[in-house]
Amino acid sequence: MRVQKHIPVQQAVENVRSGDTIMVGGFGLVGSPLTLIDALTHRDVTDLTIISNNVGETGKGLGILLQQGKLKKAIGSYFTSNREVAQWYNEGKLELELLPQGTFAEAIRAGGAGIGGFYTKTAVGTELAAGKETREIEGETYLLEKPLKADVAFVRAEKADTKGNLVYYKTARNFNPVMASAASYVVAEVDDIVNEGELDPEAIATPHLFVDALVQSRYVLTKEGVVDRGR
Amino acid sequence: MAGKEAIAKRAAEDLEPFSIINLGIGVPTLVANYLDKDSYYLHTENGMLGVTSVEEVEVDPLLVNAGKLPVGEAVGASYFHSADSFAMIRGGHVDVAILGALQVDAAGRVANWAVPGKDIIGVGGAMDLLVGAKKIMITTNHVSKDGSPKIVDACTYPVTSTRKADVIITDLAVFRWIDDGYVLTELRGEATLQEIAEKTTAAYRVSEELAAKGDPT
Fold first, then answer.
1. Which residues between 102 and 161 in chain A have a beta carbon less than 8 angstroms from any beta carbon of chain B?
2. Fewer CB within 10 Å: N-end or C-end of chain A?
């Protein structure tokens, strides 16, 4: 049966429930699904766990959800880019789980690939190893890291075809392809949706089986900052 | 040449042509200004090999380095997702990581991600780079802003890894890890052996060449 994947953004965020865990792509605002995040700011949901490298920037992207008090927990590698994160954390209003960036990315990859965990040398002997199992492998100490999965993933790509195949753009790719593999319901925000057959099969970085829905981008990052292109 | 620029220039001189290099935030980023863009490959952990500088008019907001600064695309550049990027790093495919440091200690351990008493809320790729790059080069001022030594007996800041830094380049000196500890191999600018001894609390050896030369009297 042919499925219509292109849906209105409001419909895409209807699938988010209070208490959900949501993966959100992006390195800061670069490659972040700003239109989906904006739509989520209009939903009455709370206690969300966000898996994203950063919590956006102050008052931008995921930073708006933080200001609205919708977040219970954030899992990522670099929260320093949004100064309000420390404030909320210190007031006991936000839980944080900090992972080295490579461990964070690999945990998501593992989550999407059906891997139950992995051993890495990263963070061995540091404060971020606290409470984690270690193991000697061929004379070296490794740390056991568990996979990350989510109820929903919001990712950002440049282009999709109507099947949901995705093509990315430069460093806006970042965490998006791995996140597209690791959630039960995956929505990709894109600038263009072309007919199937119009994307070069060799250029498709995320095959359509990972993607449940497509939405058209409205808020985009430009040299002048985040701009509303309207729709 | 200002201190930071001089450190960056010296670091650039230490690199083998055609190396794969990852530059951290701060002084390391400046190293790119002193590299011949045709003979080095710059990797950035947010997913690109083949980073170059970019003119203001050509800035693309979706093309940035790990410090979120705009960059350009070298001929032969490639893009990849974050998990692949860190597989390159942990897998030993990056030749040199050039990183800043809050402290480096006599055991070669680097502290560069957290300050005690401040909120520890960001680590980024620092721990992965220290574990995975074939060679670790630290670029830093010799002492901190308040004048306290940064090359210390044992790190008092949280360490980033237990892996040793191979080279330390400061505004005053170059140290290299040889056998079981750091060796002072070079004095920079007007620095003297005595000055380095006063501003370094880590134990280190002095290279035979520098020891033979001694300080000017």
1. 102-106, 108-109, 120-128
2. N
Domains of chain B in start order, with CATH, are: 3-213 (3.40.1080.10)
Q: Is the pTM of this model over 0.80?
A: yes
**Torsion over CA of A160, A165, A167 and A172, rounded to 10 degrees?**
80
Low-confidence spans in chain B with pLDDT less than 50:
none
CATH code, A156: 3.40.1080.10
What pairs with residue A159 in β-bridges? A167, A192
Burial A153-172, CB ≥16 within 10 A → b, else e: bbbbbbbbbbbbbbbbbbbb
Question: Would you call B81 and A101 a contact, using CB atoms and an 8 Å cutoff?
Answer: no
Residue spans of chain A under pLDDT 50: none
| Amino acid (1-letter code) at residue B51 | V
